[in-house]
DNA sequence: AAGATTCGTAACTAATTAAGTTACATGAAA
DNA sequence: TTTCATGTAACTTAATTAGTTACGAATCTT
């Protein structure tokens, strides 16, 4: 998401994975590997060769955090109930109740995340940026 | 939780960590280590020596999954936004938006989990148990 | 009092996962 | 044709978690 906001702010030209990696203090290969899912989902595009790199695939207003999360293959909840002893009725009961909760919770979280777009993030950044600018001017 | 339901079903006497470990196919020490948090929260009690072991600390109707989760030190969401480059405004914006979401989401999830009690899990188990009993009888 | 039982905890090992790194083939622009 | 950038495989390193062994402390039975 950090990277994506940078892409919003430099929509006119592509950013290389090396530049993106520098933003978040990591390795270019890690960046490419990570955002490959975003490319597959059409959220970003990549181009090879001279002048190539990464750009947003569409308008930031149409890109929600829910979509980003899904494209990255992230789970919204930190547990997944896999049966370990299929015969145990206690386990079946626990899994059933937990699954009900999980399905409902995931729906809720996804709904919340779908209401936040990249444009919102970029706007928040802009607001902070201008605030700093004004402050600096005043001082 | 698997272990806790077993404790509901055998409230009259204590279960040893060895017995509990057998239920979930793991090691007694792992059990003791894991549920130490439950003991500190008063959800279960432990006693040493002959005839000792683990028991519920109070009525299963008063023990919610939210409390269990908290006592075990589990996180409800699979991410925590720690600033990595404190000066970066992009990062600040991302963290701010994400934190808003996180706080609200955690509140929601905790609220949902607080409505499910150990007694509910045990009841679900009972239901399955009697269903099997009836089925077996019929067949 | 002695012996058996069980928790509490430290210390170590093993397994799994994620991140980082190197290397090189592929494709595109100058 | 040279340079630049992605795509991806393979390997290394780091961090986390689970499992194991060991033993002291507490408690019950005889």
Strand order of the largest sheet of chain A: 1-2
Largest sheet of chain A: 2 strands, antiparallel
**Low-confidence parts of chain A:** none
Instruction: Output the helix-strand order of chain A.
Output: HHHEEHHH
Query: Rg of chain A to the nearest angstrom?
Result: 20 Å
Oligomer: homodimer
Return the average pLDDT of chain A rounded to an integer: 94
User: How many individual helices of chain A?
Assistant: 6
Taken as a percent bin, the fraction of beta residues of chain A is 5-15%
- Greatest contact pair? A-B, 43 and 43 residues
Backbone shape of chain A: elongated
Number of strand elements of chain A: 2
Q: Portion of residues in helices of chain A?
A: 55-70%
N-to-C span of chain A = 32 Å
| Sheet/helix structural class of chain A | mainly alpha
Set down the secondary structure blueprint.
The structure is a homodimer of 139-residue chains.
Chain A: H1 2-9, H2 17-23, H3 28-40, E1 44-47, E2 53-56, H4 65-71, H5 89-113, H6 118-138
Antiparallel strand pairs in A: 1-2
Helix pairs in contact in A: 1-6, 2-3
The first copy, chain A, binds a DNA duplex (30 and 30 nucleotides) through helix 3.
Give a verbal description of the structure.
The structure is a homodimer of 139-residue chains. Chain A is mainly α and 139 residues long. The first copy, chain A, is 58% helix and 6% strand. Chain A has six helices and two strands. In chain A, strands 1-2 form a two-stranded antiparallel sheet. In chain A, α1 crosses α6 and α2 packs across α3. The longest helix of chain A has 25 residues. Chain A is elongated. Chain A starts with a helix and ends with a helix. The model of chain A has no long low-confidence stretch (mean pLDDT 94). Chains A and B meet through α1, α5 and α6 of A and α1, α5 and α6 of B. The first copy, chain A, binds a DNA duplex (30 and 30 nucleotides) through α3.
